[in-house]
Write a structure and sequence with these properties.
The protein has helices at about 55, 125-130, 135-145, 165-175, 185-195, 210-215, 230-235, 270, 290-300, 320-325; strands spanning about 5-15, 25-30, 40-50, 75-85, 95-100, 105-110, 115-120, 155-160, 180-185, 200-205, 220-225, 240-250, 275-280, 310-315, 335. Strands 3, 4, 5, 6, 7, 14 and 15 form a seven-stranded mixed beta sheet that branches. The chain is an alpha/beta fold. It contains ten helices and 15 strands. It is globular and about 65 Å long. It folds into two domains: about 5-130 and about 310-335, Medium-chain alcohol dehydrogenases, catalytic domain (Quinone Oxidoreductase, Chain A, domain 1, Alpha-Beta Complex), CATH 3.90.180.10; about 135-285, Rossmann fold. Helix 3 (about 135-145) crosses helix 4 and helix 3 packs across helix 9. The longest helix has 14 residues, at about 135-145. The relative contact order is 0.15.
């Protein structure tokens, strides 16, 4: 290997975890970056996205995406800059984001099928992975298209201090709704109310969620945007208003482990309240991404949506950051800065 050859570090799946990600789950490998062929471009990845759904991709079970194979680079979103190019669509200096994997470099093939897209000028790469990326898009489409909140309604959001939940709740506030959050710990709840502007926040670690919902939503919940599942979902189902809409965005409480937890006991309330519970995936709305990104960008610029990021330095810390999502260590979007 010559002195100026680029070295690509990669986290690859070594063993499928049965529960939480641990030190045996991933293996760090290094290799040379290949010379570019005609039509290719080379991206130096600067930020990696760390999201709860990544844990689900480690199970040997078909889902909305195939599982990561043992020996394969860990699938992940990322953002970086083109440093070499033989493709006029991706000139040197262009910032891109998309599925990059946990690695230092990504080669965009000549047919452009790497799953990355150019980031418009003026948008920071961190925002392209968060409030103007997958998490913001999930909040936008999940709340507006599935939840369909109306002014004056009561909206409940679990994972309210997270990257998706915090944006969903703020959109509901923009629409004139009363918004209640559920988050873990007094500091997160203080941010949800003081910065994100929710009307109230329940600390599930120190408060009885069902009791607090009875106090805060005596007339019931019209829209529940759920990122958590588990006991929080069950408590919310027991407090639904007539014709409520339950938006299933995530299930962090499950840990996304291979063995799935039992379902909620209060699901029968969906019948009694003539309510609807529906899951979704943000990329089903790909044709409308420009609409959503444009509106979110406007709201952020106007100061109507606040967002926060937890940025961890060091490529070596990616596996620990993924585990930390399920321990509540992050506020807002969890990112790894590697360059």
């Amino acid at each position: 290997m010559t002195g100026d050859a680029k070295v690509n570090r990669q986290w690859v799946l070594a063993n499928r975890p049965e529960a939480a990600v641990d030190e045996k789950t991933f293996e760090l490998r290094t290799g040379a970056v290949p010379a570019l062929q005609p039509g290719e471009a080379l991206v130096r990845i600067e930020y990696l996205s760390v999201d709860p759904t990544q844990r689900s991709w480690l199970n040997d079970r078909a889902g909305y995406l195939p599982p990561v194979a043992v020996g394969e680079v860990m699938r992940a979103g990322g953002a970086g800059r083109v440093v070499e190019s033989r493709n006029e669509r991706f000139p040197v200096g262009q910032v891109v984001s998309g599925f990059t994997g946990w690695q230092d470099y990504l080669v965009i093939p000549a047919d452009g099928t790497a799953g990355v897209r150019a980031v418009p000028d003026g948008i920071p790469p961190t925002a392209a992975l968060g409030v103007l990326g997958s998490t913001g898009l999930a909040a936008y489409f999940g709340l507006l298209d599935i939840g369909r909140p109306q002014a004056g309604e009561t909206v409940l959001v679990s994972g309210a201090a997270g990257a998706t939940g915090s944006v969903a709740g703020q959109i509901a506030r923009i629409l004139g709704c009363r918004v209640i959050g559920v988050a873990g710990g007094p500091d997160k709840c203080a941010w949800v109310v003081g910065e994100a502007g929710f009307d109230a926040c329940i600390d599930y670690r120190n408060e009885d969620v069902a009791q607090r919902l009875a106090e805060l939503a005596p007339d019931g919940i019209d829209v529940f945007f759920d990122n958590v599942g588990g006991a929080t979902l069950d408590a919310a189902l027991g407090r639904l208003a007539m014709h409520a809409r339950v938006v299933i965005c995530g299930a962090v409480a499950s840990g996304y482990a291979h063995e799935r937890p039992a379902g909620p006991g209060n699901y029968v309330d969906l019948i009694q309240k003539r309510a609807r519970m529906e899951g979704f995936l943000y990329f089903d709305y790909a044709e409308r991404f420009p609409e959503a990104i444009g509106q979110l960008h406007t709201w952020v610029g106007e100061g109507r949506i606040k967002h926060t990021e937890t940025v961890t330095d060091g490529f070596e810390n990616a596996p620990d950051a993924l585990r930390g999502l399920f321990e509540g260590r992050n506020n807002g979007k969890q990112l790894i800065r590697i360059a």
